[in-house]
């Protein structure tokens, strides 16, 4: 306790200032986060982001189960993570929060509608 009362030496202050960028680069602050604890496997967060981005670029809808299954396979094959990790829905929610991603459920038909079909034209006439 008495060591905290002593003033810092000039060399200590110089070292802190010289290595400030290096020290700050190792700190990750997440908005509205209660903890500065980093994810155990941050590379999996990057894989989720790449996968979702790729699927969006291809206009392919993805669901949460699909993402979890993909991450399980990548963890085993690419990163040789053999631990029994439960990639739960809560885990994925935290990944989405860290990455700033949102899950938007899609509904509706998967095929384009032919506006010129007779049945649709009949319904349009009734509306007019």
Quick summary:
This protein is an all-alpha fold. The protein contains six helices and no strands. It has a domain of 66 residues: Arc Repressor Mutant, subunit A (Orthogonal Bundle).
Structure description:
This protein is an all-alpha fold. The protein has a domain of 66 residues: Arc Repressor Mutant, subunit A. It has six helices and no strands. α3 crosses α4. The protein is elongated and about 90 Å long. It starts with 9 loop residues before the first helix and ends with a helix.
Strand count, sense and barrel status of the largest sheet are: none
Number of separate strands = 0
Instruction: Decide which structural class fits the backbone.
Output: mainly alpha
H-E order:
HHHHHH
Strand content: under 5%
Shape: elongated
Structure annotation, total helices: 6
Stated plainly, the CATH topology of the domain at 34-99 is called: Arc Repressor Mutant, subunit A
Classified by CATH, the class of the domain at 34-99 is: Mainly Alpha
Contiguous runs where pLDDT drops below 50 for at least 5 residues: none
Percent helix = 40-55%
The overall pLDDT average reads 79
Ends apart, CA distance between termini:
84 Å
Radius of gyration: 26 Å
What is the CATH-assigned architecture of the domain at 34-99? Orthogonal Bundle
